[in-house]
Design goal:
This protein has about 475 residues and is an alpha/beta fold. Helix content is about 30%, strand content about 25%. The strands form five sheets. The protein has a seven-stranded mixed β-sheet with strand order 5-4-3-2-1-6-17. A five-stranded parallel β-sheet has the order 8-15-9-10-11, with helices on one face. It has a five-stranded antiparallel β-sheet with strand order 18-19-22-21-20, with helices on both faces. Strand 12 and strand 13 form a beta hairpin. It is globular. The chain binds flavin-adenine dinucleotide and nicotinamide-adenine-dinucleotide.
Length: about 475
């Protein structure tokens, strides 16, 4: 029986464990915290639960237009209940995952894991496991999966103190909403929290080191979000690199590299994550971490060392829970000799959970505009969609991209309140190489937002294509 040890019990680790157990391997997960990993306990799940509450408030802002009068001044946020719900759901989901993997026969050890091979190049690997009480156990493995995830990056001049200078994992310990939150970093994490706290009625200033929010996302989508921010009174400081954050009597001062100073009551640091690869004994197996400490893997999650695989955020390959899970499963299928297709990153669907949401799949507009990928494109504003008008939605759009000659769908973007749900038909088309004709001829419900997707397909149909 193949002995598999998995370091880390996040989506990469636990999904891998389920696959390996299903294929009859002897599987152990070593997780120092709780199953579900940082994803379930501190990052993805808590943030989306918090956003569910802020989203409920966001909807109330727009009710007046639909003829429903609400007194927003009378609406209050019961923060202990919101935070209690965030933490409770995370713990419950972690417990569910633990029960599920244990039901499948996986051994779960709550401890810190590191490689302890006597020398690199051995066929059997040794994983040393240190329990909280200091006792040490040694595990032999034919295959090891490194799935240790990542941790918030700390700027030396802005070390989180859990009171005024916070990382996103400390937010749910606040007893009151911040009066004025400076969000440092405008990547996906920063944008999501800036949007959520804005909806919660908090004054927010986003500190973006670039010329816009969401520098890695679709530029038109980012522009919509900036419009919403402006409308709701959220400020975006652009070309603003935070050098340090100092505590003052009343709150914090964010000192920017160009000399500007932003005052706020709290600072939320969202300046990225670093992989948890520094203290896991990589040198004992002969793995040299790449730039930033990430572990290089191929498309079936192999590292440079036989018998050692890596998956998830510690590899730096699209830091998404869905990608981590798929990398973990692929590693196990490969290790156990099952037929496996290498991961295809061009088909990954992702969503930014702002209001409105921004969902993307496949080739980006930027790759098309730069000439890297030839494609025909269409952008339909939601304002032209009958259902959107009924719902009072003025912002947002559907973009669809297809190959010039064949009409095969290669990507798309949806900006809408439920973009995370609406992106699926486009993702299905990209994954299965469907054409714009397939979308065009599909019945969508009338009236519906998804009607804009089939309409985009119709507008990209070209019978006179000679290329
Ligand atoms: C605020 C935020 C929101 C996000 N929202 C989304 C989202 O909506 N959708 C999405 O797809 N992705 C989201 N992500 C990304 C997603 O959380 C990560 O991609 C995902 O957690 C990666 O899973 P993983 O298994 O690689 O690592 P993790 O979830 O980080 O799990 C790794 C686990 O390994 C443990 N570990 C580390 N070292 C050791 C060791 N030596 N021994 C034992 N255990 C160890 C850690 O304690 C941790 O529990 C979000 C990220 C952030 C920061
Ligand atoms: N909804 C989701 O799926 C979701 C949510 C959150 C995060 N994630 C994923 O997690 C990964 C990390 O995202 P992230 O947003 O946490 O990190 P990131 O690295 O993508 O963004 C951090 C941003 O902070 C900026 N920055 C760094 N130092 C700065 C400074 N001193 N001053 C001002 N700005 C500074 C960087 O330029 C960058 O734009 C991404 O791959 C993302 O897709 C996904």
């Amino acid at each position: 029986m193949t002995r598999i040890v998995i370091m880390g019990g996040g989506p990469a680790g636990y999904e891998a464990a389920l696959v390996a157990a299903q294929h009859g391997a002897d599987v152990t997960i070593v997780e120092r915290d709780g199953l579900g990993g940082a994803c379930v306990l501190y990052d993805c799940v808590p943030s989306k639960t918090f956003i569910a509450s802020s989203g409920a408030l966001a909807k109330m802002h727009d009710l007046g237009e639909l003829g429903i009068n609400t007194d927003l001044a009378d609406t209050t946020v019961d923060l202990p209940t919101v935070h209690g719900r965030v933490k409770g759901l995370a713990l419950a989901q972690s417990a569910d995952i633990r029960a599920r993997v244990q039901r499948e026969g996986v051994r779960v050890i709550t401890a810190q894991a590191r490689f302890a091979d006597d020398e690199p190049g051995l066929a059997t690997h040794t994983v040393e496991v240190t329990h909280a009480d200091g006792t040490v156990e040694s595990l032999s493995a034919d295959v090891v999966l490194i799935a240790t995830g990542a941790t918030p990056r700390v700027l030396p001049g802005a070390v989180p103190d859990g009171e005024r200078i916070l990382d996103w994992r400390q937010l749910y310990d606040l007893t009151e909403l911040p009066e004025h939150l400076a969000v440092i970093g405008s990547g996906v994490t920063g944008a999501e929290f800036a949007s959520a706290y804005t909806e919660m009625g908090v004054k927010v200033t986003v500190v973006s080191s670039r010329d816009r929010v969401l520098p890695h996302e679709d530029a038109d989508a980012a522009a919509v979000l900036e419009e919403v921010f402006t409308q709701r009174g959220t400020t975006v400081a652009k070309q603003a690199r935070a050098e340090r954050v100092e505590r003052t009597e009343k709150g914090v001062e964010v000192h920017l590299a160009d000399g500007r100073v932003i005052e706020a009551s709290h600072a939320l640091m969202t300046v990225g994550s670093i992989p948890n690869t520094a203290d896991i004994g990589l040198d004992r197996v002969g793995i040299e971490p790449g730039p930033g400490g990430f572990i290089a893997v191929d498309r079936v999650s192999r590292t440079s060392v036989p018998g050692v695989y890596a998956a998830g955020d510690c590899t730096g390959v699209l830091m998404l829970a869905s990608v981590a899970s798929m990398q973990g499963r692929i590693a196990m299928w490969h290790a156990l000799g099952e037929g496996v297709a290498p991961i295809k990153l061009k088909t990954v669907a992702a969503n930014v959970f702002t209001h409105p949401e921004i969902a993307t799949v496949g080739i980006s507009q930027q790759a098309i505009d730069s000439g890297e990928v030839p494609a025909r494109t269409i952008m339909l504003p939601l304002a032209t969609n009958a259902r959107a008008k009924m719902e009072g939605l003025r912002r947002g759009f559907v973009k669809l991209f297809c190959r010039p000659a064949t009409g095969v769908v290669v990507g798309g973007v949806v900006v809408a309140p439920s973009a995370s749900e609406l992106i699926l038909p486009i993702a299905l088309a990209v994954q299965n190489q469907l054409t714009v004709d397939h979308l065009a001829l599909t019945f969508s419900v009338y009236p519906s937002l998804s009607g804009s997707i089939t309409e985009a397909g119709r507008q990209l149909m070209r019978h006179d294509d000679l290329d």
